[in-house]
Amino acid sequence: MTGKIHTTQTRSKISEALKGNKNTVGNTNPAKPTSVYSLDGSLVKRFCSGAEAANFLGVSISCVYHAIQRGSVVKGQYRIARDHE
Question: How far apart are CA 12 and CA 33, in angstroms?
Fold first, then answer.
């Protein structure tokens, strides 16, 4: 919203309306445990999130998430899977 300045009364109403709304603060998408496996099926390493796995493998986060969805091979030697909680 550009150029609009809310009054003090309006700001307090907005503030009251948002109290308890957990969607307005921080990341609402929690990290999911992710494991990296070699092509022969042996566990290489477990991670707390896909982002950590991406950092370890030296690829983008989207590469990790697509590999999980498609079951594809990453860097010609790894498979990635979500750990069931």
Answer: 40
Among candidate residues 56, 60, 59, 58, the one with its CA nearest the CA of residue 36: 56
Q: What span, in angstroms and rounded, lies between the C-alpha atoms of 59 and 31?
A: 17
Q: What is the pLDDT of residues 33-59, one digit of tens each?
A: 999 999 999 999 999 999 999 999 999
The topology (CATH level 3) of 32-85 is Arc Repressor Mutant, subunit A (1.10.10)
End-to-end Cα spacing for the chain: 41
Torsion of CA 79, 72, 75, 43, to 10 degrees: 0
Bridge partners, 43 (sequence order): 37
pLDDT band for position 73 (cuts 50, 70, 90) = very high
Domain boundaries, the chain: 32-85
